[in-house]
């Protein structure tokens, strides 16, 4: 009789466990169904997306709800984002603040009007038209070099290799290359052309530089690719490939995308150079389209912003974001006319003045910021952004 009672108890226990499993399975199924329906509505309706972004996903933020950094300095102030921090350069100090607005690091740096380049964990920085170049990582100045000439532009790759464009010498332009330990690798002298930009590949093997020749009857832009190893051994054989653009086509800047693809931005289009061939990616001067902004400084993507009229009084900003690896294009529409557009890594910030939308390169809204004042500028880092005003910097975690 005892065994029978135990068997019945075990049977009841198994039924109870099965009921719990069924209840849990039904609950999970309902949750997944709700999530599926929500995402279907989110993807298919702009109005629904705005409602869900604001009330469900809490993507809308206002200035009074954010941490901030107070700006109260007598000297010039420069604000930029570096990695996951907001940096303030003032009174000969570089101060790094975390996402809560707390001062974490402070570096002595005698610079008032900086020219700089930021990549990964490195900042290469100098006084504009100065002669002293610094490479910073974390809270340390890794090295400082004094150069013969005026520093007009800097580029640093993600390994800390630095290329510098100098003016004010007997040459029109001089390019100097340093490794991440501050060793000078070589110099390039240009007598008849002006170098407008440089970029070092991520594997440290190649340097690309863009130059403009205005000595003839027409303007001539060209891009030259340099083998860094060959240039170190034999400077006379440094140029491995030259691409000459069409006459009167002005090159603005260049960026290495990966190790062997160079993205080139001209005044009328964006192109790519790979395996010694050139192809167009995006037009910046297209009939019937008011293209106001464009850039190539995103990771694996480029973009252009087109201003379109929506009815008699409404204007929209249409972002066209193209992946340079697969040529897929993503469209994102901002309601309003963009006053400024800022971009870095995989984030685009469209400023309408008192409203700023942060969009990723997949075409999804990350944060929508609003305030009662018009922002001076926006700085973007890795997962962080700063909204800059005269007296403060508002911090947004993206």
- Look at the structure and give the CATH class of the largest domain: Mainly Beta
Q: Give the overall pLDDT as a whole number.
A: 88
What is the fold named in CATH at topology level of the largest domain? Methylamine Dehydrogenase, Chain H
* Tally of domains: 3
**Biggest sheet details:** 5 strands, mixed
Taking all Cα atoms into account, the compactness measure Rg is 27 Å
Would you count the extended β strands for me? Answer: 33
Count every helix, treating DSSP H or I runs of 4 or more residues as helices: 3
State which percent range the strand residues make up: over 45%
> How far apart, in Å, are the first and last alpha carbons?
67 Å
Enumerate the spans where pLDDT stays under 50 for 5 or more consecutive residues: none
> Would you identify the CATH H-level superfamily of the largest domain?
YVTN repeat-like/Quinoprotein amine dehydrogenase
Q: Based on the coordinates given, report the CATH architecture of the largest domain.
A: 7 Propeller
Biggest sheet strand order reads 1-30-29-28-27
- Principal-axis shape equals globular
- Report the structural category: mainly beta
Task: State the helical fraction.
Answer: 10-25%
Explain the overall architecture.
- The protein is mainly beta.
- Helix content is 15%, strand content 51%.
- The protein folds into three domains: 2-44; 61-101 and 288-398, no CATH class; 113-285, 7 Propeller (Methylamine Dehydrogenase, Chain H), CATH 2.130.10.
- The chain has three helices and 33 strands.
- The radius of gyration is 27 Å and the shape is globular.
- It starts with a helix and ends with a strand.
- The mean pLDDT is 88.
């Amino acid at each position: 009789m005892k065994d029978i009672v135990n068997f019945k108890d075990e049977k009841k226990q198994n039924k109870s466990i099965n009921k719990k499993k069924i209840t849990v399975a039904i609950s999970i199924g309902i949750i997944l169904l709700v999530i599926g329906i929500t995402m279907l509505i989110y993807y298919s309706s702009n109005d629904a997306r705005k409602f869900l972004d604001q009330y469900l996903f809490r993507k809308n933020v206002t200035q009074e709800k954010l941490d901030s950094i107070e700006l109260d300095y007598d000297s010039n102030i420069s604000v930029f984002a570096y990695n996951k921090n907001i940096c303030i350069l003032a009174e000969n100090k570089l101060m790094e603040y975390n996402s809560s607005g707390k001062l974490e690091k402070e570096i002595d740096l005698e610079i008032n009007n900086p020219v700089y380049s930021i990549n990964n964990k490195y900042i290469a920085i100098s006084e504009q038209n100065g002669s002293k170049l610094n490479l910073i990582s974390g809270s340390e100045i890794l090295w400082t070099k004094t150069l013969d000439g005026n520093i007009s532009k800097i580029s640093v790759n993600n390994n800390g290799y630095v290329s510098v464009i100098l003016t004010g010498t007997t040459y029109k332009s001089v390019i100097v290359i340093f490794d991440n330990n501050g060793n000078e690798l070589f110099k390039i002298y240009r007598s008849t052309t002006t170098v407008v930009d440089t970029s070092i590949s991520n594997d440290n093997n190649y340097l690309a530089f863009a130059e403009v020749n205005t000595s003839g009857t027409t303007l001539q832009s060209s891009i030259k690719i340099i083998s860094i190893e060959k240039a170190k051994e034999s400077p006379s054989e440094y140029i491995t490939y030259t691409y000459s653009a069409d006459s009167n086509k002005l090159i603005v800047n260049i960026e290495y995308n990966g190790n062997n693809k160079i993205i080139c931005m001209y005044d009328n289009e964006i192109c790519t150079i790979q395996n010694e061939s050139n192809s167009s990616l995006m037009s910046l001067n297209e009939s019937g389209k008011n293209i106001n902004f464009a850039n190539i400084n995103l990771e694996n993507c480029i973009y252009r912003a087109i201003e379109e009229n929506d009815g008699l009084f409404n204007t929209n900003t249409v972002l066209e974001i193209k992946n340079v690896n697969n040529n897929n294009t993503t469209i994102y529409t901002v309601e309003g006319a963009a006053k400024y557009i800022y971009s870095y890594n995989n984030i685009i910030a469209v400023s309408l003045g008192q409203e700023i939308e942060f969009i990723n390169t997949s075409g999804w809204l990350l944060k929508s910021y609003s305030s009662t004042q018009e922002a001076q500028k926006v700085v973007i880092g890795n997962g962080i952004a700063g909204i800059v005003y005269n007296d403060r910097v508002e911090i947004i975690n993206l």
